[in-house]
Design a protein that fits this description.
By secondary structure, the protein is of the alpha/beta class. It has one domain: Rossmann fold (3-Layer(aba) Sandwich). 56% of the residues lie in helices and 12% in strands. It is built from 9 helices and 5 strands. The longest helix has 15 residues. It binds adenosine-5'-diphosphate (ADP).
């Protein structure tokens, strides 16, 4: 299996790029944010729980997120691999992911990180909020809290994957097509 972690701060463009590369490589795209939003919309127990964190821009607790992720992977094993978008976001999620993939004699092939400056992120998220109406994109202090959560809990994962020799940073600013090409180049060389 080819398993890719698409990494980067909120607004880096993970979802946009995941959509473009999943078909090319027949990978199953898991966006933890999308799964949470689906559950919120359908008012499930998981959705009710996740909502109180997401609307503040806080991370949903690890235990809940890991359990959900495990379930999605286990229900979709007939693929060439996965694109993880928005997961892992903490060290304990990264360890849980290793553990899960090991069960299937698999591992993370690459973490591809979209590098984008904070000012650009805030601009992009504010713009997206106007169009999508996503509550957590519509308020500056919530956006700033998400970026803060990223630097305090998530950014350290760069070192985690660098140690495994599978971290690839790419410039996440430019035309969408150009960024896709940068990602494809990394995947083709794996
Ligand atoms: P973005 O990357 O733009 O923040 P996402 O849709 O990936 O958008 O995430 C939205 C929110 O969902 C996060 O702010 C967080 O509350 C929750 N979330 C998503 N993935 C995770 C995760 N792996 N662990 C904890 N919370 C998560």
């Amino acid at each position: 299996m080819k398993n890719i972690v698409l990494f980067g701060p909120p607004g880096a463009g993970k979802g946009t790029q995941a959509d473009r590369i999943k078909n090319k490589y027949n990978l199953f795209h898991i966006s933890t944010g999308d799964v949470f939003r689906f559950n919120i919309k359908n008012n499930t127990k998981l959705g009710v729980l996740a909502k109180q964190y997401m609307e503040k821009g806080d991370l949903v607790p690890d235990e809940v997120t890991i359990q959900m992720l495990n379930k999605v992977v286990e229900n979709n094993l007939d693929v060439n691999g996965f694109i993880f978008d928005g997961f892992p976001r903490t060290k304990s999620q990264a360890n849980a992911l290793d553990h899960l993939l090991l069960k299937y004699d698999s591992s993370i092939s690459a973490m591809i990180a979209l590098e984008v400056a904070d000012e650009v992120l805030i601009e992009r998220l504010t713009e997206r909020g106007k169009q999508s109406g996503r509550a957590d994109d519509s308020n500056k202090s919530i956006i700033e809290n998400r970026i803060k959560e990223y630097y305090s809990k998530t950014a350290i994962l760069k070192t985690f994957y660098q140690k495994k020799n599978c971290y690839f940073g790419i410039d996440g600013v430019g035309k969408i097509d150009e960024i896709t090409e940068r990602i494809i180049k990394v995947i083709n060389e794996l």
